[in-house]
Amino acid sequence: MDDDHRREVMDALGERTRYDIVVALIKKELTGDEIAAAVGRSRSTVESHLSMLLRLGLISREMRDRVYYYHATPLSIQYLEGAPDTGAPPPATDRSEVRGQSYLWAVFSTAAGALYFIINQYVYPFHIFGMGILFGIASAFLLKSLRDVVKATITTAFVISFLAYLIPFSSSPIAFFASFTISLVYISIGLALWLLIRSFRRTISRIRGDNLL
């Protein structure tokens, strides 16, 4: 790294908002909206800082489901955590891991819907309200984007209704759509719970981050 670039990096990290952004991204990957919430700034303000940090190589980003996810780079970790400058290039992104994460919602929702149907049908009657709560708690830890949670909510409700229609061979199409609507309403409780849990976790992360600075 040349002296001019090193000076630019130091100047960039000397600004409080940019410093807070990098600290937040060292902890975990975040979307633009999540970064704005974490540092307590508007989205437009954060965008200008992200552009500079991207240009200097302090952060990187990748698009998943039409949403950019931002990451801290080894360079930013080197500056903020005092790691020695080895001159080695940053490690390449594991694309297979990214692809696996992009389909996690489909695997999760299919498994959740099938498991609920089996338990409710053959083991013990379990009200779908409880399923909605469990869905929300599990998705808060497994799914990172609101888009994935919405898709998982719809898919879970469809799987439950489709199995109820298919296996007993006694339901009519009207009963299927009624079952799907009811299932979707109750599973949507999980969507609301996901939003609540994610908001709570962001608040805790921001409080911890402020205490470290």
What features would you describe in this structure?
There is one protein chain. The chain is mainly alpha-helical. It has helices at residues 3-13, 16-27, 32-39, 43-55, 74-81, 95-102, 104-123, 128-142, 146-166, 173-212; strands spanning 30-31, 59-64, 67-72. The two termini are 27 Å apart. The model is unreliable at 83-100 and 209-213 (pLDDT under 50).
Biggest sheet record? 3 strands, antiparallel
Share of residues in helices: over 70%
Q: What gap, in angstroms, lies between the N and C termini?
A: 27 Å
Shape: elongated
Strand count: 3
Structural class: mainly alpha
| Model regions low in confidence, pLDDT < 50 over at least 5 residues | 83-100, 209-213
Tags for this entry?
213 residues, mainly alpha, Arc Repressor Mutant, subunit A, 2 domains, 7% strand, elongated, disordered C terminus
Report a brief summary of the structure.
With 213 residues, this protein is mostly helical.
Set down the secondary structure blueprint.
Blueprint: H1 3-13, H2 16-27, E1 30-31, H3 32-39, H4 43-55, E2 59-64, E3 67-72, H5 74-81, H6 95-102, H7 104-123, H8 128-142, H9 146-166, H10 173-212
Antiparallel strand pairs: 1-3, 2-3
Helix pairs in contact: 2-3, 2-4, 3-4, 3-10, 7-8, 7-9, 8-10, 9-10
